[in-house]
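Researcher: Please translate sequence to structure tokens.
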Amino acid sequence: WTLGSDYIKIELPGAANGLGTPQLADLDGNGTPDRAYAGDLYGNMWAFDLSSSNTNAWQVDYTNGSTPVPLFTAINAAGDVQPITSKPILARCPYDNSVSPDVMVLFGTGQYLIEGDKTTSGTQTFYGIWDRGDDELERVDLLEQFANDPSLSYDTTAVRVPTDFTMDPLTQFGWYMDLPDAGERVVSNPLVRGGIAFFNTIIPDAGDPCVVGGGGWLMSVDICDGSRPDEPAFDLNRDNVVNNGDLVADTTLTDASGNPITNAPGGERFNPNEGLPWQSSVLGDRQYTPGSTGNIETRTINVSNNTLAGRLSWEQLINE
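Model: Translation complete:
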């Protein structure tokens, strides 16, 4: 193979950074990808411009002078770099569609590659970065959501009800949600269905790296601002339907009629008997999540909202 003829190499600055699997986007609908996103072990989310018919012009989209710079760098509140080892997922949100490229880039942070990773406990995060043509974004540019709404009272050991703050698209270029459990991280690829980002977190045991112990969470939040869903996104009570029976009741708050205040959950603890949850697959309205014990957990999810989201390179040919 010959460089420049059979393949193109786009170099990034600095030391070897462990670039992850890229996600491709066909934004103009011509059947070929014209943009790519990929994260690295230094917390950088890179945007690549592949739109030119001249492959020699393919490059990192953002630069400072002649030096490539990332779309975003993931650093937690303690100042720790957050590695990105999973593949991002892309979505579109109805904010300001006059900007370009107008893509919401969704990804989690965390690493689980070497023995020492099992005992790391720094805070990791799930991000939604709105790529609207601005580079070198940071946490201060984003809306913060919380995995557990502190204004509500419920059993946080089994379920999460995130906050539902509203993003201001004039001043905020995305959102983030810190993962609250020590050692919690995202190392598998997220999914988008019906305007909801489904992502799994793992919490490894700090013991023998060869055992399957540990746990994690199955999360479901709004793609555009990271808030809890407006209605249940998954079958919490396991009756094989997603409806108001899957709402979470506050144990102290009531409405004017004395009924408990209810909210849609945004997270469910993975079955503790199944170990660490890995990447989920979705078939129809069923979500399949393998655990580190070798078993697969199944739950029903709500995929009824036909939001323009998910992989931005397929064209729908048949609508049943």
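Researcher: Any highlights?
Model: The longest strand covers residues 196-204.
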